Amino acid sequence: MRAYQYKARNRRGEALTGTLEGETPEAVAEQLFRSSLTPIDITPVERRGVSKEIKLGWFRPTVTLDELVLLCRQLYTLQKAGVPILRGFSSLIETTRNPTLAVALKGIVDDIQSGRELHMALARYPAIFSPLFISMVKVGESTGRLDDTFLQLAGYLELEKETRNRIKAATRYPLTVLLAIVIAMVIINIWVIPAFADAFARFDAELPLATRVLLAVSQFTLDWWPHLLAGITGLLLALSFWIRTEEGGYIWARMILRTPLIGHILKKAILGRFCRSLALAMRSGVPLVQALSVISGVVNNAFISERILSMRDGISSGESIARTAAATGMFTPMVLQMIAIGEESGSVDDLLLETAEHYEREVKYDLARLSDAIEPVIIVVIGVMVLVLALGVFLPMWDLSSAVNKR
User: What is the pLDDT of residues 315-329, one digit of tens each?
Assistant: First the structure.
């Protein structure tokens, strides 16, 4: 419901003001008439949380998966209790702590009041609600099972969050070490090696090759660091722009999946997400062709997205799910066999969920081993750095020390 401020007169003609909640101004007017009051003016009251969000401009906080999970569970509870959808969204506006989500909920309430269906109102906020989310809500509206839809979405988003957290936890250590190596190289080239260069310049002696290489690299960095910084920044911007193009995004997505150590893990995670999303959409009643079209935009990988669209086209022309899946070359024989059995038994959604769980177990196992696989590589890189520094810095110092002792 929404709060409205009213002005009215009682039977004696005395002016009264106050605030009432109602679905529409007409509903508030009806309440006033039942209380023997004649309404003069009824205006909606802006909610404090929403007006604060509008002033934030472009700098709005994002809506996290945790907040979406909580929203779905709250909507499930409200729907299960028989609370009307409009009243349910209205009550959530005041309780949400994210101003971006609050403004979206306010807009959804306004759209529903103006006659739009819920899925159409959600579609106006694609940055918050994914196409899969909207499609499932649309089916839930048409079948009258919105409560089950919100419960299924909450479970799906929780698993998605868990998978993302596992990937972040597994890659945090190697990324931290890589960043530390880059910072160490910058410090060595800008401050450490020039200090040794001044010491070596005082002695008229031939320096080893490793030392000359280090000094040359350090001098080059000192002389050209503005150009290097501009070049690296320009390269990153050009790469970012290229990835946003259709062809660049496709090539980049394929390269990511072929990256050593992490490529096969990302592929399994994406395929697990695909299987679970498809099973969830099929259980909710979304048509298979429409579900594949929606999920192709949810997997966040252009290479696999194109394979999913090829599955959609094959199914549209009359092919089975198993054959179109085999033609993509993405799935293992075991998974293809499970899909084929599911088609024969009429339980594709159940076997797709088992396939998703299979991929998720493999991802969990591979992520647990990722640190063990990356650690030797990191040790070798650090060892090579220490060896080069030892040969380039300490070897000439030992030579100079030996020459001084001989004198």
Answer: 888 888 888 988 888
